[in-house]
């Protein structure tokens, strides 16, 4: 995959830019941390211009995104030992294709319901944010 071709005209949706923090650049996607300390929550955003739906990706991009989702899942499993992972590409509020990977725990604030709309997001403190991103980057290295 040619990253420079993917980036032509591509930009992170403003809502995702406001709600997330960069963690890593994968071959196809930017890996972002959702600014909600209630849950270890990653978002993958393929750097493909005008991608709204999974079907907007070609076969090779779909295969790469699947690999990257699996990588994000393994990262959360290894680092946080969740009871369950939620993986979803909803896009109801933000049309840009993005995939949520959320570590869930029996004792979390929303369990067993979906995380959306269950509790007010708790932004990371600046210190917590730095620690969380450093932890995730170290685990990816």
From TrEMBL:
According to the record, the signal peptide region is none
Q: Which Gene Ontology terms cover its molecular function? A: hydrolase activity
- HIT domain residues: 42-111
Q: Which Gene3D superfamilies match?
A: HIT-like (3.30.428.10)
- Superkingdom of this protein's organism: Bacteria
Q: Where are the transmembrane segments?
A: none
Query: Looking at the keywords, is Transport present?
Result: no
Provide the coiled-coil residue spans: none
Q: Which PROSITE patterns match?
A: HIT_2 (PS51084)
This protein's UniProt keywords = Hydrolase
Q: Is Hydrolase among the key words of this record?
A: yes
Which Pfam families does the entry mention? HIT
Q: What is this protein called?
A: Diadenosine tetraphosphate (Ap4A) HIT family hydrolase
